[in-house]
Design goal:
The structure is a single chain. The chain has about 260 residues and is of the alpha/beta class. It has a single domain (about 5-210), classed as DHBP synthase. The protein contains seven helices and eleven strands. The chain has an eleven-stranded mixed sheet, sandwiched between helices. The longest helix is centred in the N-terminal third of the chain and has 12 residues, at about 10-20. It is globular. The relative contact order is 0.20.
């Protein structure tokens, strides 16, 4: 699949691909997303299959603004506070799902909750506005692989899978959104991410609880909760005495090792 620059006309074309049930890779401020119309179960299924992602692992529904998010999730006072403070931005909020939401059950993996986000990246927001639908979008990489932060990473990992790849350059943050669960009696941090927990706690004036990591195949409440999430394919040497060419050093202490 060719990589296309994110011009206005090509964003419109990508939106048409989504409307026709296609899968589009696009940039956000965090990482690249692999998007499909969240109301189209067949399109969402293609995303799961393209990634090799288990269907019990829910997706995040991306929307253009808070008003649209309110049509799908039941916003309580804490959720509205966080949305007003951090949206658009790298925050995902898990809420009770509205009965009238048109988002298909596959997006939420059969749960009664829905994960919602309004991204800050202007290309992503332009795509969402042009598409006129919520877009279910996990990171644009094979399940378990490192998230794509450039269009070239998407093409290298997913090959000809996506119907369209919008190139918006390197992502600004390179780290996934923070995921907060506000569907229950206390706020929970489901996935650490780009927004530190302290900033969220300051807005809520409350401490965040920590969700336990579910054991497979128990359904997680959020992306990033499975025991294995990132699995970089790299050789690791322990107790190294030197840094060889092509290696990077992870060290604790004050004496860096010599390089060869």
């Amino acid at each position: 699949m060719p990589i296309e620059p994110a011009t206005r006309s090509l964003i419109q074309r990508a939106a048409k691909v989504l409307a026709d049930g296609g899968v589009v890779a696009f940039p956000t401020e965090t990482v690249y997303g692999l998007g499909a119309d969240a109301t189209n179960a067949d399109a969402v299924l293609r995303v799961y299959e393209m990634k090799g992602r288990p269907r019990f692992n829910p997706l995040i529904a991306h929307v253009a603004d808070l008003e649209t998010a309110g049509a799908h999730g039941c916003f309580n006072a804490p959720a509205r506070k966080l949305a007003e403070a951090f949206w658009p931005g790298p925050l995902t909020i898990v809420l009770k799902r509205r009965a009238e939401s048109r988002i298909c059950d596959l997006v939420s993996a059969g749960l009664e909750t829905i994960a919602l986000r309004v991204p800050a990246n202007e290309i992503a927001r332009g795509l969402l506005r042009a598409a006129g639908c919520p877009v279910a979008a996990p990171s644009a990489n094979r399940a378990g692989h490192v998230s794509a932060t450039a269009a070239s990473h998407v093409a290298a990992d997913l090959g000809a899978g996506p119907d369209f790849i919008l190139d918006g350059g390197d992502t600004v943050l390179g780290l996934e959104s923070t995921v907060i669960d506000l569907s229950g009696p206390e706020p929970l941090l489901l996935r650490p991410g780009a927004i530190p927990r302290e900033e969220i706690e300051n807005i809520l004036a409350a401490k965040l609880g920590d969700a336990t990591t579910p054991n497979e195949p128990t359904s997680p409440l959020s992306p990033g909760q499975l025991a294995s999430h990132y699995a970089p394919r790299a050789r690791v040497r322990l107790e190294a005495t030197c840094v060889e060419p092509g290696e990077a050093l992870l060290a604790f202490g004050g004496n860096p090792l010599p390089t060869q």
